[in-house]
Amino acid sequence: MKRLLSKLTFWKVVAGLVLISGACSAAVRYLGGLGAATNLTDEFPWGLWIGFDVLCGVGLAAGGFTLAGIVYIFNVKRFEPIIRPTILTAFLGYLLVILALMFDLGRPLQIWHAIIMWNPRSVMFEVAWCVMLYTTVLALEFSPVVMEKLKMTRTMKVIKKITIPLIIAGVLLSTLHQSSLGSLYLIIPEKLYGLWYSPYLPVFFFVSAISVGCAMVIFESLLSSHAFNRGLELDLLSEIGKVAVVGLAVYLTMKVVDLADRHALSLLWLPRMETYLYWLEMVVGVIAPLLLLSRRRVRESRNGLFLSAVMVIVGFVLNRMNVSITGLEAWAGASYFPSWMEISVTVSIVAAGFVLFAYGAKYLPLFKQHPKTVSIAPSEAEWLQDLKTVSQPS
């Protein structure tokens, strides 16, 4: 018992409590139905579990196809040291999205119906098949890591021979369903608030997924470097920051042009909650990180990269929640706020992702040494110097 207690840490205790809370909420949901566990209504049938767990979950896993395309299709091999943890993050992300769907579906045991009951005119059908296929592709992409651990040399060689076709298939599938998640809202132009509705929603969803995919690569690399006491590929993350700048700039330009084209710029100045949340989403998640990452000093700073990545992620989450919830409240004539059980299930799914990644990092050959890694144990003076560097003008 003493040996077990000695291994407990603050974060392990927190993760355990979160998972227990999620398990209790899951029991209520499956025994009592959606009505017993959620604040969903006929006016608001899609809530937190769709807006965050699915729309955000799929987007936050976009680093997999983004970095895989850079390494294997564009043949930029210097990013290989960070490809394995990125693929694992994407794979776990998609598994957890599927798990989240099992909570939101009214009849979760019928989730397999999409396999045999085809409806090719349905956007949901296309998303379901793309997610299933891409999860399979991610499993195959990550399988060499497991095979290396198990010393399955022959099988690993076979998988490596089909790596390029797998990556191409993964990029195509990701492009399809990342954009199709935006297509889900194209059929409700009269219901979704004008600041978020656009005929270009699929394009916006795809471009923002690329930007947040880069941010997730930076976020995961910085956290894992500290958590697992390994080197930090600061030069590679700095280049990923440059890619994020391009994605954010394209996204911001498209949003401004779209509002002007739809004569919706006047909505930016109306004194209402949608206006404030839209500005928060754009300033925090697009404009501020775009300005920060455009500066070389910020991209070469641990703190600068981390702060910028967090801002992009927060802005991305705000966008998906605004599209799925905030933008529909005015039309529905009702407000929605998730129940504590909805929140506990969501938080437990996120916690499960961190736990699974930690076990993967502990027992699998996940990280490759990069020749230009930097120390991950900076002194207090070095951290303060990083903060000063970020704040100094170019």
Describe this structure in words.
By secondary structure, this protein is an all-alpha fold. It has one domain: Formate dehydrogenase/DMSO reductase domain (Formate dehydrogenase/DMSO reductase fold, Up-down Bundle), CATH 1.20.1630. 73% of the residues lie in helices and 0% in strands. It is built from 17 helices and no strands. Helix 4 runs parallel beside helix 16, helix 5 packs antiparallel against helix 10 and helix 8 packs antiparallel against helix 9.
Describe how the helices and strands are arranged.
Layout: H1 2-7, H2 10-32, H3 34-37, H4 48-60, H5 63-73, H6 83-104, H7 113-116, H8 123-150, H9 153-161, H10 163-183, H11 201-227, H12 234-261, H13 273-293, H14 296-299, H15 302-332, H16 340-363, H17 380-391
Mean pLDDT: 88
Per DSSP E runs of 2 or more residues, the count of β-strands stands at 0
Strand content: under 5%
**Distance between the amino and carboxyl termini:** 56 Å
Uncertain stretches of 5 or more adjacent residues: 375-384
Q: What is the CATH homologous superfamily assignment?
A: Formate dehydrogenase/DMSO reductase domain
Number of structural domains = 1
Shape: globular
Q: What structural class results from the helix and strand content?
A: mainly alpha
H/E topology pattern? HHHHHHHHHHHHHHHHH
CATH structural class = Mainly Alpha
From the alpha-carbon coordinates, what is the Rg to the nearest angstrom? 21 Å
At CATH level 3, the topology is: Formate dehydrogenase/DMSO reductase fold
Sheet having the most strands: none
Named CATH architecture: Up-down Bundle
